[in-house]
Protein 1
Amino acid sequence: MSKPTVDRMLAGFKSFKAMYYEQRPERVEDLVNMGQKPEVLLIACSDSRVDPAILTNAEPGEMFVVRNVANLVPPYEPDENYHGTSAAIEFAVRDLKVKDIVILGHSGCGGMEALVEHGEAGKVPERDFIGEWVSMAKCCLHHGPDVDEVSRHSICNSLDNLMTFPFIKDRIDAGDLHLHGWWYGMKEGILWQYDSAKGEFVQGL
Ligand SMILES: [Zn+2]
């Protein structure tokens, strides 16, 4: 009988510890003593199949990551509500001064399916939060009903929403911050990249 996942995760931590604390202790010392200085903010879906660090082979300290349902960026709305994604974006851009922001979407996204099915109503039956959350991208619904197509357009919508944050627009205008839209086709193992000049996703890697 195979071990429960949490047991394998604990064994995985032992492997991680051996790789960094025993084989590359200087890397850990740098991260502890110098603090984090990631150059990239990556906004990805919470989907268990699209872990950004695994997909990009990133090392500790390289990416500041926000994950939420359907990798969505809300518009700039400084009010009394709880804005977890916006708070992370603010910290990454204003304090960590990342140089690039990547929005990473993917095929077969459950959050995007919820958007296509219930986004217009803004309410998923018997759920308290999902419908309202994904409805922020309902302007993309006219690209449907293909979920993957809506998913790609929602990345463009999130890129537009990033530009509504004044501290992001200022740094982009100054030329020291760059935005990227990536979309991972899981079945084929292809990473599509948004080409803003063409206004479409082009096959990358
Ligand atoms: Zn997803």
Protein 2
Amino acid sequence: MSTLQERIAAFYDFLWPFLEEEGTRYVYLDASPGGRPMSELLDAIPSRRGVGKGSRVVDVGCGKGRQVVALARRLEGHVVGVDPLEQNLSLAAERARREGVEGRVSFARGGIERLPLETSSVDFVWCLDMLNHAEDLEGAMKECARVLRPGGSMMNCSALATELLEPREAERVTWRLGLNPATLSRERMSAACAAAGLRIVEFGTTTDEGSPYLEELDEGMARHALRLAKVRRARKQMESRLGADALDVLCAYDEWNIFLLLGKVTYGVWVLERAG
Ligand SMILES: C[S@@+](CC[C@H](N)C(=O)[O-])C[C@H]1O[C@@H](n2cnc3c(N)ncnc32)[C@H](O)[C@@H]1O
């Protein structure tokens, strides 16, 4: 056990010489630890699972259709975009038209709790950054398994809490973002997959060293920290322009991104298979 004096000495023994040479001898500390953009990492999954021409894919929680269009282009199959919000579906359909893939996509309103699709009707379920909104995780996974044909696959990419995330932080931020904190547990996810008859073929996170899904650190993430710092210093000024509620949502969104940056939250990527 070290004494306080010993720890103070150790701290300054390191700090003073480090600061002297921070910009020269230690520049390697600022180098990228590697990784690729998340989109590239995920894009390779469907073809790896045999999805291609003639396949039918569902993008659950398709939002404004970014992935629907990209999947239709890349895989040359038919992609169904599903989202509970009408305004998202309109924007997604408009995007598909603009990008010339309207013949290979369709849209249906619905949620993961009850997908507007026939049983065993799709080859691949694509679920990107959506599952944390699910109220009933187990039911959601069962519903995905229901629409998959036997032997079909699913990609889920959703957030997980790490041991660094404190319960009060989780509560504060998930509330504002409409996320179900129960979905942030890896154990809970694994149990839900098993209960739905979905075998985990691959799992990795986007932040763990050595993970096949290691994501590139984006300098834009620092913007969230800076903006939050500005809100803390000039809240009234910002509130008068944006409104108190919107500012609270923005702060939760920025804080969530800082949690990601700090490794309090990470993205888990699951490749799942429905038993044949
Ligand atoms: C963070 S956005 C992700 C959009 C899209 N997947 C992407 O990566 O660009 C989450 C989406 O999930 C949708 N969503 C929320 N609750 C849902 C539910 N119960 N079932 C399906 N989608 C849901 C939202 O409307 C929103 O479009």
Protein 3
Amino acid sequence: MKKNLLITGGAGFVGSNLAVFLNGRFADYRVVCLDNMQRRGTQLNAARLKDHGIRLIKGDVTNPKHLARLGRVDLIVDCAAEPSVLASRQEPFKAIQSNLIGTFNCLELARRSPADFIFLSTSRVYPVAALEEIPWEELPTRYDWKKDASGTGYSYEGITQQFPLNGVRSLYGATKLCSEHLIMEYLDMYKLRGVINRFGIIAGPWQWGKEDQGVVGFWVARHKYKGSLSYIGYGGTGKQVRDALHIDDVCELVLLEIEQMERVDRQLFNIGGGRKNSFSLYELTKQVSAITKVAMPLTAVAETRPHDLRIYIADNSLITKHTGWAPRRSLENILSETSRWIDGHFQKLAPFLSDFKKGA
Ligand SMILES: NC(=O)c1ccc[n+]([C@@H]2O[C@H](COP(=O)([O-])OP(=O)(O)OC[C@H]3O[C@@H](n4cnc5c(N)ncnc54)[C@H](O)[C@@H]3O)[C@@H](O)[C@H]2O)c1
């Protein structure tokens, strides 16, 4: 009999891409997706899953009965979450339910089954004030850490998993960090296998980016559909920096973790595009403009939002050391593929990508 590979949040950006990528890769696994279909765009992702013959069950991870109905599973990739810092601030109950209680319910399913557990955590677990204290300088097109910056858990190359965790990080980050703690306890108590991945920005086709979550996709979509764009925070210069990881690099990593679970079991990794795939919003605008051939007027909002970060770049050295994995795709790949994806379905995607104010 085939084993069950459950992807929670399976109609979301990461979950649906993973499902399509993993489906059929293992002769002995059947991919099953579960999603409450709350996020905007999940209908289109659901249609894509159907086209690939992947089973999608409408269900909520906050409801243990919905998970119990699935019966025994052999592997859980937990991608169900409210992934926005802003939305978690506006609706703390929902964020705690989906991000923390949801993961707890998934762990219970893993315990009963038993199942291996792969968790999509976030760089947002790191405290804001400590990140902001890393010595930085202002360059013509971006802020950057000083080349000689170095301390516990950081260097010019990026943030490692040794970065201190004391301090405030946003409710979103707190729910994910609490989930990480629960996972480690469950792995230990019930002799399960699992791995935690702290991702920075993930981007690529099939992402329904919003201003506050999925910024890279949002930037491309705004250029394509000619909506308004602003540099928000840090004086409105657009010099804040992130790194971006292609969704296909995420899929390859998860495949590797499934195949080499013994090697990554009980590990916690920082994962991101890394310095090579870092960009400031200002630089992103230039690159997106060149690819889409659209020059957008940008407005500036000087005031910085709560929990925003001046610079975040992941240091991938631990995962590379453990598995050999490193990002293979560039920011240019991400932007041009996202742009082509929109071109290929321009009318169909318009209701989901051209008005970001309405819907989740
Ligand atoms: N996209 C990124 O840049 C990024 C970065 C770091 C970490 N992550 C993590 O990766 C995971 C996937 O993120 P994503 O970008 O695909 O987000 P997404 O919003 O596209 O996908 C999440 C999915 O979970 C579903 N969902 C939410 N609450 C649920 C619930 N209670 N029950 C069932 N389904 C529920 C949503 O409908 C959505 O389809 C999340 O855990 C997120 O924290 C994402």
Protein 4
Amino acid sequence: MELLEGMGKRTVVTANQRLAHHLTQRFHAWQRRQGKRAWESPDILPLSAWIERTYEEAALDGDKRLPLSPFQEQVLWQRIIEASPYGEGLLHAAATAKKAQEAWSLLHAWHIPLESLDAHFSEDVQAFLEWAKVFRDRCQQEGWLDTSRLPEAIAPTGGMPPLALGFLETTPQQQALFQRFGIEPLPLPAFHGAPLRVAMTDRLRELEAAAKWAKALIEDAECPPSIAILMPDLPSLREQVIQCFDEHLCPPSLLPRPVHARPYNLSLGRPLGEEPVVQSALLSLRLLKGLTLEETGLWLRSPFLGEGETERLERALLDARLRERRISRFSLHDLLEAASGSCPGLATRLRALSPPPPYRSPRAWARAFDALLRTLGWPGERSLSSQEYQALQAWKGLLEAFSGLGGVWPSMSLSSALAQIEHQAHETLFQPQTPEVPIQVLGMLEAIGMTFDHLWVMGLDDNQWPPAPAPNPFIPLALQRRHNLPGSSAERELAYARRITRQLARSAPRILFSHPLRERDQAKRPSPLIAAFPQGTLSLGEAPSYPALILRSRRMETFSDVSGPPLPPGTLVEGGKDVFKLQSACPFRAFARLRLGATSLARAEGFNAADRGILLHRVMERLWRFLESHGRLCDMGEEALGAQVSRAIQEAVEETARRLPHTLTPRLAEIEKARLFEQVMACLALEKGRSPFRASPEVKKTVEVGGIAVCVRADRVDVLEGGEVVIMDYKTGEAKIQHWEGERPEDPQLPLYALGMEGVAALCLAQVSQEGIAMEGIAAREDIIPRLRAIGEEGWQAQLKRWAEVLERLGRDFQKGCAQVDPKDAQACRYCEISTLCRIHER
Ligand code: SF4
């Protein structure tokens, strides 16, 4: 009560923004309880904001220095680091700049002079010293003031000194500031609760229990209680928390574009650059440098572009078509060409874009980026949700901050401008404003100074709490320990975590501390800091999740439909050999792929195994069209044969390079040619040892089996002197004759060919791989091809009959429209592209 009265009369500075918001809300609620209809807003703000405001109002001795924004400061550090001799070896100068900026800030907060750092301690310290001196000199020359030195540049101007709340620990710099201004730290809240410790099976159960616990508290209370759920690892668990809490507390949030407000609020936010509307803006800017295939897909399907809704279908189809081109990057020009015709709205907008000049000031870049986004119709034609609108405003703020970089970086290239914008968008945490909600999900430190009706602090196993020390790499460790800097030692972290735990245990009348018993395969113990609290149990009763309730209350009429409409007998089916292979692997897969046309989007891949297989087939086809027979092969000298092989390879590679110009690059083509030459020559050497034959490459046939007709094409058909036929198939991947066997053969391609031709006496797989060349197959007699398994004339006829029966049944099933989700085995589903359609994983 006293605190609330005090807040109405004096400025209150808090340790963080969330506490300032919490106190403001409490003050308003208190005023409403007093029956007031209007009152003056309290002046409650985080200490950092108060310092900035005070500097603007009353700089010490008329200090005229220009305060740098955090963005400007970070860019200045980055520029200094990149220009130093150490900059060249750095992979990520922005991340180093962040650590250097943090070291600079720690030194000032703990009043440690730069000169006390020992340059001989390590190369990191030496580098930091050089950067810090340049930073200090640069600020002095330009009349800039950085955030770390701002507290020392303000002076009291009279009036009531502020009150301070939420400072569990103050730095020497803050202590001096408080003393100079007469700032009174208020005591932290101290409920006399009786905290309990509970053990949970694992983190997921812990999260679920917390969601159910909060739900039960809200449902049982007459007026909504204030509930807080805290965890030390909230940043890494953020998405899991949202998923779990949405499911239990607000299932409509799981729908796209939810209209229901969540009853909980999650602190820390997520990077602004991950908000879909900002992600779309960043991709649009990156378009100037070209987009990868995946980025192109994301960008095309974005609803935040002009005509993104009306051309949605056309753009999705364009994405699918672009994927088939096997190009890994698309320029603005490529996209304009691709969009012309199918997506007129997009094409018009792309046409209106012009290439930017190489260098500009940040302000000019900001204006150009803004204009580009407007030309592309960003943020789209539909009305934005509250969160999207707030993200849009945050983006505008970011662009504004970027345009202010001119002082520290007068002229930058497009690449640098894009890199800075993207880096900052991913560094800026976006926390949308939400109406007052009963449940707060917070990090550990954020709750210091707040009070709640119920508090649950979770995830406190001995690995998480106290946290491991994380000293700054640019300040010598001994110096950090001497000044007891944050993260400098295990003892320091333990003592600080103990103070936090003690304070949290006094922040609500009812408190639970929990810890998981397992994480993956590891057993977990409670943190020693909560081990002394009495152990309790949590009785949440039977509280099924909303999805479980919906499922339980369902009224279902079961209708088993495992067949599509039959095909007229004799229908010529597209898909060739794949019809039987897919029907054998899984009837639903065959139906979905070949009759519904269901397939997955192509992925960005380089020259893959399938491309290598096709290339080999093209070479062999050319070669055997020339050779025609075993006799000619044997008659050719090695040199002439080698020249012919090289010619066939050259032609096939050129043809493939025309088809895949971005995939089969000249360098890769040379490697492929050398590899192919070795393999083809080895293959021909093996063929020389066979009995004489005449060869016909790429023989096409239409085969009718089981009421359907399919077109097939054998890689090669050899006719022996006695008139018997051998069907050859080149394989660059794994293939075995066992794949022809059984009621559901894995790959019945060659048996299918055997049914479509007269006089077949052998089936042969010519395996061409890195491991070597081999021939495998089944033959009626040993003398047909010596290496094949000979099963005798009778056995061969019986085998042909078995294959005919199996293929007849598979063909008949396909013709009848059999479409059961019935995979042959787990392997059949492993590389299946339509598992999301059959939903096998939901069974
Ligand atoms: S994932 Fe398995 S069950 Fe589903 S269609 Fe593919 S093979 Fe059949």
